[in-house]
Amino acid sequence: MAYLDYYKILGLEKSATLKDIKSAYRRLARKYHPDLNPNDKDAKRNFQQINEANEVLSDPEKRKKYDQYGKDWQHAEEFEKQRTYREQSQGSQAGGFSESSFGGDFSDFFESMFGGSANAGRSRQVKYRGEDYNAELHLDLLEAYKTHKRTLTVNGKNIRITIPAGIENGQTIKISGHGGQGVNGGPNGDLYLTFSIANHPKIKRLQSNLYTSVDLDLYTAVLGGELTIDTLTGKVKLKVKPETQNGSKIKLKGKGFPVYKDEGHFGDLYVTYIIKIPTNLTEKQKELFTELSRL
User: 133-197 — its CATH code?
Assistant: First the structure.
């Protein structure tokens, strides 16, 4: 996989705290969310990179490997094994070499140590990690709302995964060990699963908040009353204040989307009222409106 500077993607220094990382992720995820940038062809790619950077840097163990090995952080265990093997096999020989003898990164180290015909016999014994796979999983908004299990078929095998509630459209997660098979007994690659979440016909999602609009008849808007609306978890009854204006909004706290990996916490639901003007009025109704206008 291509090297990505996760700190640069999030606009952070290497000394950034976990709080800094979370704050930068929320700000950039909101800025580059594909639903908010329908005309930007790079928005989805940027959003995926932001999610990937957050996935690594917000995990202390992954971040430690990334800080130490850079673009080859996913091969950290292999590097450590090869370093131990090299030290053991070369420790008793004169003129042994140190890690600093190699320029470049650890990828160059492998090439210099095992490349070429002189080391052909040794290279056949090297354990190589399998290829990483990339796949896309399609969900609708209701499926993304609840934590649930899903069976995937990879390399002819069924694997059972748990999809956390609140997963984002465009977010990528790693399923370790379910990529290509390793060589010479090396570890398998990983499966990177990107989620594609379809829009809901009536409800729009922006991170953990939901947005919808409902029609309100003129009489209820003027006099006040009650209105029942549909949400992702069922019907909710609203009290409409008298003299409600067209386009006015109300917030239903805690009626939004689940917060990703923060069980029990939800965003809010914002409802916009769209007042419908009555049509096909009778003569009597027109007279009453005329009388109101004179008053």
Answer: 2.60.260.20
- Every domain of the chain with CATH number 1.10.287.110 lies at 1-89
Rounded to whole angstroms, the Cα distance separating 241 from 225 reads 7
* Beta strand residue intervals within the chain, DSSP E: 133-139, 148-154, 157-163, 172-175, 191-197, 203-206, 209-217, 225-231, 234-240, 249-252, 269-276
Task: Quick: pLDDT tens for 1-51.
Answer: 456 788 998 999 988 999 999 888 888 888 888 777 777 878 888 888 888
Residues 205-235 pLDDT 10s: 988 899 999 998 888 888 888 888 888 888 8
Query: SS3 of 66, please?
Result: helix
The DSSP result for 239-255, as a single string, is EEPTTPPTT-EEEETT-
Give, in order, the Cα–Cα distances in Å from 137 to each of 148, 158, 178, 210: 14, 15, 15, 22
Ranges in the chain annotated CATH 2.60.260.20: 133-197, 203-280
Specify the CATH superfamily of domain 1-89: DnaJ domain (1.10.287.110)
Does the predicted model carry a pTM greater than 0.85? no
Q: Residue 52's closest CA among 105, 107, 106, 3?
A: 3
* Measured distance CA(235)–CA(15) in Å, rounded: 47
CB 290 within 8 A of CB 231: no
